[in-house]
Amino acid sequence: MRATEILNKRSVWKGPFFRSFPNLTQAKKDNQVIKTTARNCTILPNFVGMRFGVHNGKNYIPIQITEAMIDYKLGFFVPTRKKFSYRLTKNK
Amino acid sequence: MVYLLGVNLPDQKLVKIALTRFYGIGLSTSERICAYLSIHDKARIGQLPEHQMTSLSSFLSAPPTLPATHALSDFKIEADLRRQVRSNIEHHRQIGSYKGRRHGQGLPVRGQNTHSNARTARRVNRLSSRGFMTSARQSQALPASFTSSLHRLVSRFVK
Predict the structure, then answer these.
(1) One Pfam family name from the record (chain B) (predicted)?
(2) Chain A interface disruption, residue of B29, B95, B105, B152, most A CBs within 10 A
(3) Looking at residue A73, what DSSP letter applies?
């Protein structure tokens, strides 16, 4: 029953969608932040422990990849919209 | 009237209808349960013989382990199901995902518009421990001069 939820996401033969980062192994060694705009890149098991700077449309927001984040997309953890906060005056 | 696991099942109701009073049982699930326990489609709660009543109550209180392909394999009701739902939300909160964030804000999670309304989300999407967490934070973070409505507005966005 639950299997359909996962299987309906995408054809199995295609595998997960991801971008290849050319500097991945080097960055993993140096613990560098990989800046990327590929928000739609699936988080793969070999990303765990790395740091990504994910673009939110304006800045690159650093996130630390943990094991629980596998199989979600990078953009899932970086919001693109600012929270509305009411201000009485515009000058503040 | 039969009292089962904290739920009252009225005598005159069909069994498959009465079972939907449980949190986590809809019509299709209740029909599956009736089929599994060989309870007749038109049987009413009051007419159920003793052995079927006990098998029903034992099924609900301790669901048997069924093969994973079975429709009732991950059958959960009431407190167990509520706990599962809460832990699913809590998982998203902990990994800091968009879903968890939307739950925390009391806003729709699946991309619905929020320009107006979004009433259901405001009613449903709140965290279980949120009530006293935010009240404690409010008193620390905000001066008392704020109005109560502004308090509520801010608390939705203060994490």
Answers:
(1) Ribosomal_S13
(2) B95
(3) B
Q: What's the CA gap between B147 and B134, in Å, rounded?
A: 16
- Is A10 inside any structural domain? no
Out of A41-45, B25-29, B151-155, least confident range: B151-155
* pLDDT tens column, B91-127: 888 888 888 888 888 888 888 888 888 878 887 777 6
Please count the residues of chain B.
159
The answer to ipTM > 0.85 is no
Nearest chain A Cα distance for residue B62, angstroms: 20
**CATH assignment of the domain containing A33:** 3.30.860.10
| Distance from chain centroid for Cα A65 | 8
pLDDT of residue B132: 38
As for how many domains chain A has, the answer is 1
Is A92 a domain residue? Answer: no
A72 occurs within a structural domain: yes
Whole-angstrom CA distances from B70 to A90, A92, B66 are 60, 61, 6
Q: Which residue in the set A1, A66, A86 is minimally distant from B95, CB to CB?
A: A66
CB pairs under 8 A between A and B: 29
